[in-house]
Amino acid sequence: MAVADPINAVAALKERADQALRRADLAAARTLFEQAALLAPGRVDLWLGLAASRRALGDHAGALEAVEGALTAEPRSFPGLLMKGSLLEALGQTTQAAILYGIVVRLAPPAGQLPEPTRAALAHARSLHERYADDLAASLMAAAGLGAETGALARRAETFIGAITGRRQIFQQEPAQFHYPGMPAIEFYEREEFPWLETLEAETDAIREEAQAVWGEGGPGLEPYIEYPPGAPVDQWAELNHSQRWTAFHLLRDGKPVDANCLRCPRTMAALTVVDQPHVQGRSPAAMYSILRPRTRIPPHTGVSNTRVVLHLPLIVPEGCGFRVGGETRQWREGEAWVFDDTINHEAWNDSDRPRAIFMCDVWSPRLSGEEREMIGRLTVALDRFNGFAPEGEADL
User: Fold this and answer.
1) Residue 344 DSSP class
2) Can you tell me the distance from the alpha carbon of 334 to that of 262, in angstroms, rounded to the nearest whole number?
3) Is the peptide bond prior to 184 cis by the omega test (within 30 degrees of 0)?
4) Tell me: the pLDDT tens digits for 220-249?
5) 17, 109, 148, 239: which has the highest count of C-beta atoms within 10 A?
6) Using CA atoms, how far apart are residues 37 and 69, in angstroms rounded to an integer?
7) pTM to 2 decimals?
8) Are the C-beta atoms of residues 327 and 168 closer than 8 Å to each other?
9) Helix axes 116-144, 78-90, angle to 10 degrees
10) DSSP assignments along 239-279, one per residue
């Protein structure tokens, strides 16, 4: 009886408060919600009812106090946080409201699950937060004092500011197999770290010509990029497994030249000699033409090892193609190479009606010393040999 009475009392008070609201007796509703919330301080609905009553009576400070009671009971209450934001606005604390609305937007359930008044309030919250983020980004860029600069410092500042304002998701390295410690998570590397890039780019026409010849000859040498055997978990690759929609023409594969293919592309192979490629027995180097057919998307994924990075040299890029690494999306430009960390979540797409072709190869991470490269090569070969995957012999470093 001692337990049931308070419960029944709270239920009765809540029913009477709701009735008072329906007949627009706000003062009575406020009093009844106050009494109920004191008896059951863990009930979010009671605090929110009290807050709504006080707000309707023009007592915004009192309503905010009641909302804090709701958030004490349930700190991630979506309706509580949304109401708190609206009350902060009413009290003239627009910046604090906009900051809070960023949390509200992240916690919001799907719009279809919300009644129309709540959807409207959420749309307002999102709009105010976006204006706040725009103003904050502009202020921070001005404080950075970078002006119209477009170099590495400016790009890093923009990324930093994007993270501060919540506009840019932070991605980390997620190598599928080899995670070497201390390597930086850099989505796209600066060109200056690869002084041979311009030399390679100067050979774009020759490389493209050989790629077009291979492509024009049709099937020989072109293989599906994704080739999982039966029984393997294909996950996001199910649609592209053994598909001609994404094909590769391998020149170097698993550390060895594909002789027949190399003979067909002598100028490409000559151009490749300037690239600082890894040489690890049974693993690297690797180089290929990558052909992505029209209306094809490569799903988000990550690469195998953060000890190497990947070079793209665009050869044929129709409109409607794009590439994302982490939080940065770029458009390929024919003849302009870039180097990226493929252990950061990335994806590509060709939404055009024509195939897209790039030349790609692996490159040693510029952050590794010569000593580290040798050690990584020895360890990789030792691993493969222990598992029965590598022939006896020294690492080819």
Assistant:
1) B
2) 22
3) no
4) 889 999 999 988 888 899 999 999 999 999
5) 17
6) 9
7) 0.79
8) yes
9) 60
10) TTTT-TTEEEEEEEETTEE-HHHHHH-HHHHHHHTTS----
Q: In the structure encoding, which two tokens stand for residue 276, read together? A: 């600082």
Question: Which tokens belong to 11?
Answer: 């239920």
Q: What are the phi and psi torsion angles at 105 (to 5°)?
A: -60, -40
As given in the structure block, the two tokens for residue 327 are 């939080």
Cα separation, 278 vs 288, whole angstroms:
15
Q: Give the H/E segment covering residue 55.
A: helix 44-56
Strands 296-301 and 346-350: antiparallel
pLDDT, tens digit, 9 for 90 and up, residues 49-102 = 999 999 999 999 999 999 999 999 999 999 999 999 999 999 999 999 999 999
Cβ pair 312, 337 in contact under 8 A:
yes
Q: Which residues are 325's β-sheet partners?
A: 328, 346
Phi and psi angles of residue 340, each rounded to the nearest 5 degrees, phi first: -135, 165
Tally of CB atoms within 10 A around 325: 21
